[in-house]
Design a protein that fits this description.
By secondary structure, the protein is of the alpha+beta class. The chain has one domain. Helices cover about 40% and strands about 10% of the residues. Strands 1-2 form a two-stranded antiparallel ribbon. The longest helix has 18 residues.
Amino acid sequence: MPKERFISYPGASTEADGSLLLGWAGWNHRDRADALIGLTRDRVETGG
């Protein structure tokens, strides 16, 4: 059984894809922010 842990971002999924968005719990605060900023930037560029 892996001992990896994950964090969830409820409400961060798109309307078209209602699946739960997960991130790795081993990320520090900067890594988490980078991931969320990248997600936001991608959605703004693609109109999602």
